[in-house]
Amino acid sequence: MVDLVVQRPEGLYCPPGHFYIDPWRPVARAVITHAHSDHARIGSGQYLAAAPSEGVLRQRLGEIHLQTLAYGEAITHHGVKLSLHPAGHVLGSAQVRLEHGGQIWVASGDYKVAPDPTCDPFEPVRCDVFITESTFGLPIYRWRPDAETFADINSWWARNASHGRASVLTCYSFGKAQRALSGVDASIGPIIVHGAVDPLNRAYRAAGVVLPDTRMVTEVQDKADLRRCLVICPPSAAASPWMRRFGDARTAFASGWMQVRGNRRRGGYDRGFVLSDHADWPGLMSAIAATGARRVIVTHGSIPVMVRHLGEQGLQAGSFDTEYGDDSVEADAQAARGAEAS
Fold first, then answer.
1. Region labeled Disordered — which residues (predicted)?
2. Does residue 339 fall inside a structural domain?
3. Does residue 332 sit within a domain?
């Protein structure tokens, strides 16, 4: 049997369908799992993605030739039946289901299984072969319920506000920022967002996602608001001149990487909140099991650990060497540099 997805220099390729999934080089036809910059890159001829991702894809990639599919809607291309299914990662994120020659493969992109009001929940898709990420593919990564994390964030903000200090919560501008906004208590004070975050908020709201009212710092009339506000910005903005407007602010980073002691200290943050848009170890294991796949291919993250563990569970486990991973951080850095005047 012919593998439905193979690795090529341009990216992950479907030979019978003559298209790529999240290619890292320009190609003629690209199926995109979500709009983070390591999975959605400019330069390809035609793009196919889930309908809810259209706004953020166009905001990040500009003018592209884009076809969208509703979740669960199927098309056939060169004999390959293709459909997109919710991945629960960010707005519009999708798993790619491929059916051809008696085989079903699913390429998951990035995913999480925890509830998130800003995107459709992860949908397990039965398949023969499952391509999984492994960003947090180590047993130490186990997320607390969101309610507990947001209670900690709101308590930190309220305490800072009572002392006349701004609370600067740094997080990736696409996905994490909107998820953070969806969980904070807007009654504590005004919410200010960085210029890299605001256009993505608009795309989320246009897609029907409910977010609290936010302002740009240039829209603040009462300077006292700058001493009790919550600021949502990308990590690079916390070390930029843009931060001077908030005086003696307190800073925090929201990320799954805050699970590891020392990451907050090395980043120079006052606080670290464990909040991830990726599945933790139990989430990865439950998602893989729910597919029923007997063959699993692991991409970006803790690949050797995942492959070894899955093999010990009796699965046929292997890996693809991809260029997915940290580009969303660099994209936020670039966006922050371009929006520091906002």
1. 321-342
2. no
3. no
